Amino acid sequence: xxxxxxxxxxxxxxxxxxxxxxxxxxxxxxxxxxxxxxxxxxxxxxxxxxxxxxxxxxxxxxxxxxxxxxxxxxxxxxxxxxxxxxxxxxxxxxxxxxxxxxxxxxxxxxxxxxxxxxxxxxx
Length: 123
Fold this sequence. Notes:
By secondary structure, the chain is mostly beta strands. It has strands at about 1-5, 10, 15-25, 25-40, 45-50, 55-60, 65-70, 75-80, 90-100, 105, 110-115, 115-120.
């Protein structure tokens, strides 16, 4: 199983970006999927995610500006980021809790991370 993210880049404050993260491989189920970010010198933090119940969680700092969505058929989650601020600058990581399968056996849920995509917001 792999997570592949795309969509990062450089944008001016007030601008928008859309991140995508696709899970691929022998996937039985995806129970949680979302985005974290890590700014220089700071700990990794949750940005937005779908919970196992199908609800969404957002960091207070992005509520009203970021929207998470997903395409279950494509095992893909998106993050639409609007009204970007310089403090949104960070490496954004896709995260998913996935049950995989091999040779007819379903494996326990595992926490997968994508390689990260850099978002830079200039003032």
